[in-house]
Structures are given as C-alpha cells and as structure tokens.
Design a protein that fits this description.
1 helix; 9 strands; Porin; 8% helix; 8-stranded antiparallel barrel; signal; 69% strand; membrane; OMP/PagP_B-barrel; mainly beta; OMP-like
C-alpha cells in the first residue's frame, strides 16, 4: 500500500506540473503551511460497537495547491502526535500496568476542492497514513520492570473539510477524517480512527 500511495502521489504531481493551465491562477493556489489540532478517537473496527479511547491530536502540514477555475487540486504531507491512550491495571499480576499509546502519525495524500465563494472552498481528501503505537508493560513497585514495544501501522485516510480565507495569505479550516489500519505482520488488527481537526495556515 505504501508503494502504491507514493507512486500515485508522484504521478499526480508530475501531471500537475505538466499542465500549465493549472499554474497559480486563483486565490486558493500555491504553497501552504498549517498548524493543526483536534479530537482523536481510536477504536476496534470489528463490529462498530466499541467506543474506543479518545485524546487530543496536534501537528503540522505542508502542501501545494493548483487551481483551475473553481476546481483546486492539491498534494500534502502531515506529521501529528496524540495524547490518546488506554491503561489496564492488574492485567496479568497484582500491581502490574499495561498501557497503549498512540504516537506520531505520518500522512501523504492529495485533495480536490470546489471554490464556493471568493473566501471559501470545500474539499475531499485521501491518501496513505502510517501511525505508531507504543505499548508499555510495567511490573513491580515504582515500575521496577518495564517492557516497551513500538509498532508502525500502515493504513489509508479519507476526509472532507472547509477552508475559509481570512486574508489573501491566511486561512482557517475545519476537517473530519477517517483512517483505517489493517494487517501487521499478517495479523488483522482492524483499527478505525476518527478525527475532528481545526487548522490555521499561511499561503505563499
């Protein structure tokens, strides 16, 4: 999946560069950098009944958009982290603790948008995501023995949002996105991730 996502992004980027009509010709074209923050929920995707565990996610994004008429095409890369975690006590022995924490998340993808006013654009997005999960198992008084394990999860992300211009070079946005993570070492983990994000950015 990672190779396919990278190849698709590279092909799309090449096609955009080859189309002079898609050069910067509108208020939503050009490079952009964003600061992001929002709500994060990770849950078992097996039967859809799990409430999962929730936390706060934050990070940054860089991207580049091409505009042709009222249509916008963009590529973007994002790095976020999260406070989302869950803990269990006395799991295997009295006094022990087992915790799982969501770590950094890397996203590479694209988006397509429709300009609905001189200040606003709605868009849909999709791409590849790689999330890190860290587990810790602690036994003994004051954490005498601690075992730490980290695993990177490959998945896909889709989402939709609204971007609103505050000035010719600044904007805010709101976005919902869904990510799914499947197999790890031939084990089907089946995790779903739902996020509600707010962002503030600068276009240049």
């Amino acid at each position: 999946m990672r190779k396919l996502a990278m190849a698709t992004a590279a092909a799309a980027f090449g096609a955009m560069l080859a189309a002079p009509a898609m050069a910067q010709d509108g208020p939503f074209a050009g490079g952009r950098v964003e600061a992001l923050a929002g709500y994060d929920n990770v849950q078992d995707g097996g039967d859809g009944s799990s409430e999962g565990t929730s936390g706060f996610t934050y990070g940054g994004l860089v991207g580049y958009d091409f505009q042709r008429g009222n249509t916008v095409f963009g590529l973007e890369g994002e790095l976020t982290d999260a406070t989302t975690s869950t803990r269990t006590y006395n799991a295997l022995a009295a006094g022990d603790r087992f915790s799982v924490e969501a770590g950094r998340d890397i996203y590479l993808g694209g988006r397509i948008g429709a300009v609905i006013s001189p200040q606003a654009m709605v868009y849909a997005k999709g791409g590849y995501t790689n999330a890190r999960v860290e587990s810790r198992y602690t036994t003994g008084a004051a954490g005498a023995t601690e075992t730490i394990d980290k695993v990177n999860l490959d998945g896909f992300r889709v989402g939709a949002g609204l971007e609103y211009k505050l000035s010719p070079t600044s904007f805010i946005k709101g976005e919902y996105r869904y990510s799914h993570y499947g197999n790890v070492d031939n084990v089907d983990i089946d995790l779903d991730r739902h996020q509600l994000m707010a962002g503030i950015g600068i276009r240049f």
